[in-house]
Specification:
Helix content: 25-40%
Number of helices: 31
Number of strands: 35
Shape: globular
Strand content: 15-25%
Oligomer: single chain
Bound molecules: iron/sulfur cluster, FE2/S2 (inorganic) cluster
Largest sheet: 7 strands, mixed
Strand order of the largest sheet: 13-12-26-25-24-14-15
């Protein structure tokens, strides 16, 4: 693929459905009404110079390069700010225009360093291109007048630099920060000649509100804002389009390469999930892929106190297969299992569950989605009939009221948060349901209309009281319900929801949310136009996670907010491929496409294709695997790309279970916390080293493309295939494309998906089959997937995890923008500049009561364990609630979380842990033990004996 991105049309596409025909340089062109003359001219094939315009930003009209002549108009209007009119006759080239454009460029160049040959942007600079295009050969004003050539560079950001000497003050960066990212970190200071781009008050990006999304860097037409990697490594030579491996937004990126080295990752303009935008993780934090900590050879050891021994791939695979067969011989067929990864591709995940079902001969397969979105699967399937979000991201453009529940999009799903903020600036209303004052409540240029600041653990009480108001105040969409929903289930639900105990007034003492606020928010949601719900782990990771998901679906059905653009129920998925790992049959009770393993017809479909007999009983879930390990019946585990020792709740319980295993096989990039308990380490490959697909939160299946060979020699899918072969169940694939063909053959919702189709269409939202050959952006349009939508009674039942005099505070957990999940990737990048430790956020009142100051070390004790972090005093918390992130293993956030879990799916109740917080002076006992164990394991890894010695 060439380095050229698709054409820059100068101004955004008009959404108008009316067409206008005009003539540009004698060529007739038809464009939507509202299109600029600049865009129409470029569409007609004319070459109009421009500097302040780019098609990701609204026209600004400052550079005066795009001037044109229009019949019947005086002077030379700027084509970027002039809208097309029917019958217009436009000329983009004439002697007069050429003279004016050369004059403009002379002025720019007279205040610009003439160092093109040594400039990092040489060959990728619009100023340079346009100087050539307008035929600039001399600068009459000379270079020695007043200029900015000696201005000092701003180098505070670890990923990009700002050189004011190269700035032409076109404001593209300022506008990108406002219009695309919605952060408003940049301004143009002063006026006229003195104008200068400034980040924040002090002019330093790192001291400003900048979130390092990179939008300004992309927008800059010169080398004023440029990636440090380009300065260090030079311009890229070729490009591969691939998909971000961080969050569930699934941004499309151009991996710009020199040989097998990534020079930079640039968000792809044609990416349907991100439309050319990105966040700091996907844009800049890719260096972990070649970090020195990557393990590049397979390793084995008998006991976890032994040093590692590097071995060949063949030895590692044969050893693993031998151990698994030995264990099954001794303890039975069900004594081993596997865990798939939401960080790996669909094809890899599919192969792991196939390995477990076909080669292990049981259904002991589970996935990290168990601990995040398993209630989404259960709740949406039970009510709507499909375990997935209902909309595409672009649906937000038609939303009038958005309700965000238990999600923190600016940190967890930043690119979608920017789309939300854009819609809010256009006038949409916002309701936030969250115990914390997140940025969407009260952030830069965002203000929620209602913030329902509930107590952690009372989601269901809030959703019921919202639905109560809708039902009691006559706001139900009875017509929609009668046509689309199961009448019996609806009547039962209506009776339930109207009961007085569900009213906001009755619930207020439980939720802490003023009844009047709930009533106002319910009215807005039900009557404010298209209303859409977006939710996150603050909904699912509760003892009533599945109940809450069903409560959300009830509310959407009750108000008719489902089945068209602008509405819907949308889980914001955490990891890049959570949706995909669930779709691919990673749960112990489901084959790919969410079909129950007990269903004989589905089973026989897979049996005849896989040529094996499948067990009809669901296997063990992750927590059951831990329990079985502790009771001695589960002895072998294959973990691909998940760090259960850090991510799962009640760390001490997990590590005891891992220690009880006779063969723990970890396939990962790094020696993660789980690998410290492993007997076999199989080095995995990053998203840059393999082919495959990821499925994002909007069911969009996008290609992951290999841009460099696997550092350890094998891609993850190849390792699983080899292991299966060694276990006596050969799998025959030459490429991941063949795996996808098998998935499509066996899974009706994927019937039309293939690598060829994705390459042709860019990406595909499942279901994709003969009735939707190009995929399905919005689900449940004419009828629900399950036929009639089913209302479910969602009685609020308080969690067992209650505050007490001993544990008087509630701890809730979440993420931060710059770090990702257990931090294995982002901790190995310069993102540490923003967040280099997890802290405990505590309200100043709670801190004062305990004599705690900002930065003090505090002990956090729960029924499960104790850890120590530094405190951060924050009014984002409500009194009585404390909060922390979990990106650093030594923080031990999950030492404190308990084994309470969702009643339906066992998703852990991470969001509610009763704790006490006290001032302390030294690390907790667990942290001391963790430190000693980690140091020992790192020594054992460093002392590993190389292969063939
Ligand atoms: S990196 Fe993003 S947030 Fe920072 S100044 Fe640029 S556009 Fe704004
Ligand atoms: S830094 Fe770049 S984008 Fe920003 S005003 Fe200067 S030249 Fe324009
Ligand atoms: S928003 Fe998510 S998918 Fe997009 S660049 Fe950031 S981490 Fe990657
Ligand atoms: S591109 Fe039109 S004025 Fe700059």
């Amino acid at each position: 693929m060439s380095l050229l991105e698709s054409v820059d049309f100068g101004t955004p596409q008009s959404r108008s459905e009316m067409a206008v025909t005009l003539q540009v340089d004698g060529v007739q062109v038809t464009v939507p009404s509202g299109t600029s003359v600049l865009r129409a001219s470029i569409a007609a094939g004319s070459n109009v110079p421009k500097l302040c315009a780019t098609d990701s930003l609204e026209a600004f009209g400052s550079c005066r390069l795009c001037l044109v002549e229009i019949d019947g108009r005086k002077g030379y209007p700027a084509s970027c700010t002039t809208a097309v009119e029917a019958g217009m006759k436009v000329r983009t080239q004439s002697d007069a225009l050429a003279r004016i454009r050369r004059g403009v460029m002379e002025l720019y160049i007279s205040d610009h360093p003439l160092d093109c040959l040594t400039c990092s942007a040489n060959g990728d600079c619009e100023l340079q291109d346009i100087a050539g295009a307008v035929g600039l050969r001399e600068v009459r004003y000379g270079y020695d007048g007043a200029n900015h050539l000696a201005a000092k560079k701003e180098l505070s950001n670890p990923y990009f630099s700002f050189d004011p000497a190269k700035c032409i003050v076109c404001s593209r960066c300022v506008r990108a920060c406002e219009e695309i990212q919605g952060t408003y970190a940049l301004t143009i200071d002063a006026r006229g000649f003195a104008s200068v781009v400034t980040a924040g008050q002090a002019g330093r990006f790192m001291d400003s509100e900048c979130v390092s999304c990179g939008a300004c860097v992309q927008a800059c037409p010169t080398a004023a804002l440029i990636e440090n990697s380009v300065i260090d490594l030079g311009q890229p030579e070729h490009v591969h389009v691939t998909t971000c491996a961080y969050c569930g937004v699934g941004c499309s990126f151009r991996a710009e390469m020199r040989g097998t080295q990534v020079i930079r990752m640039v968000p792809h303009k044609d990416g349907r999930a991100n439309h050319g935008h990105s966040c700091v993780k996907g844009r800049f934090a890719w260096g972990y892929a070649t970090h020195k900590d990557r393990i590049r050879s397979p390793m084995i050891r008998k006991k976890i106190t032994d040093p590692w021994q590097e071995v060949s791939w063949q030895e590692a695979i044969v050893y693993t297969a031998g151990e698994f067969r030995r264990i099954q011989g001794k303890y039975g067929r069900d004594s081993i299992g596997g865990i798939t990864s939401s960080r790996c591709t669909n094809e890899e995940t599919y192969l792991v569950q196939k390995l477990v079902r076909a080669a292990f001969g049981n259904n002991n397969v589970d996935t990290c989605a168990r601990v995040c979105h398993s209630p989404t699967g259960y709740g949406l399937k039970a009510t709507l009939g499909e375990s997935a979000g209902t909309q595409d991201f672009d649906s937000i453009q038609a939303t009038d009221v958005m309700m965000i529940i238990g999600a923190n999009p600016t940190d967890g799903h930043p690119v979608f948060a920017s789309a939300m903020k854009r819609r809010l600036r256009e006038g949409a209303k916002l309701i936030v349901v969250d115990p914390r004052v997140i940025d969407m409540v009260n952030g830069p240029h965002v203000q929620a209309d209602y913030h329902l600041q509930l107590r952690p653990g009372t989601n269901v009480a809030v959703i019921n009281s919202l639905a109560h108001v809708v039902a009691a105040e006559g706001l139900l969409r009875e017509g929609f319900i009668a046509q689309r929903c199961d009448p019996k289930a609806y009547e039962t639900w209506k009776k339930f929801i109207l009961q007085p105990h569900n009213s906001p007034e009755a619930m207020e003492p439980i939720t802490g949310v003023p009844a009047a606020t709930v009533r106002a928010a319910a009215r807005l949601y039900a009557t404010g136009g298209n209303a859409a719900i977006y939710y996150g782990l603050g909904v699912t990771e509760h003892s009533q996670g599945s109940t809450m998901v069903m409560g959300i679906a009830n509310l959407a059905m009750a108000t008719g907010n489902i089945g068209r653009s602008g509405v819907g129920v949308n889980p914001l998925r955490g990891q890049n491929n959570v949706q995909g790992s669930c779709d691919m049959g990673s749960f112990p009770h489901e084959l790919p496409g969410y079909r129950h393993i007990a269903d004989a017809k589905t089973r026989s479909l897979f049996e005849s294709d896989w040529k094996v007999t499948l067990v009809s009983e669901p296997g063990l879930r992750i927590p059951n695997m831990f329990d079985a390990a502790l009771d001695g019946s589960f002895k072998g585990l294959y973990v691909q790309g998940e760090d259960i020792a850090q991510s799962d709740p009640n760390t001490q319980h997990v590590t005891q279970a891992l220690t009880s295993l006779e063969c723990l096989v970890v396939q990962d990039l790094f020696l993660n916390e789980t690998a410290k308990f492993a007997h076999v380490f199989l080095p995995g490959s990053s998203f840059l080293e393999k082919d495959g697909t990821f499925t994002n939160a909007e069911r969009r299946v996008s290609r992951v493309r290999k841009v460099m060979p696997p550092l350890a020699g094998m891609a993850d899918w190849e390792i699983t295939v080899e292991l299966s072969k060694a276990l006596g169940y050969p799998m025959h694939y030459d490429s991941p494309a063949q795996v996808m063909d098998e998935i499509a053959r066996l899974t009706p919702t994927f019937a039309g998906v293939s690598f060829e189709a994705i390459d042709r269409l860019g990406s595909i939202q499942w279901p994709c089959n003969s009735s939707a050959p190009e995929g399905t952006p919005v689900m449940h349009v004419d009828q629900f997937v399950r036929g009639k939508g089913r209302f479910v009674v969602t009685e609020f039942i308080a969690t067992d995890e209650k505050v007490s005099p001993r544990y008087p505070l509630i701890l809730t957990t979440g993420r931060i923008l710059s770090q990702y999940n257990v931090g294995a990737q982002t901790r190995r990048t310069a993102n540490l500049a923003w967040h280099d430790e997890d802290r405990l956020e505590i309200h100043p009142h709670d801190a004062q009561e305990r004599g705690i100051g900002d930065g003090d070390w505090v002990g956090i004790a729960s029924r499960a364990g104790e850890t120590v972090l530094r405190a951060r005093l924050s009014e984002r918390m409500q009194p009585g609630v404390v909060y922390t992130t979990f990106h650093f293993p030594g923080s031990g956030a999950n030492v404190i979380t308990t084994e309470n879990s969702d009643w339906a799916t066992n998703c852990p109740e991470y969001k509610v842990t009763a704790v006490q917080v006290t001032l302390v002076s030294h690390p907790s006992e667990w942290q001391e033990r963790f430190r000693r164990f980690s140091e020992q394991q790192i020594r054992l890894a460093e002392a590993r004996k190389p292969v063939h010695t």
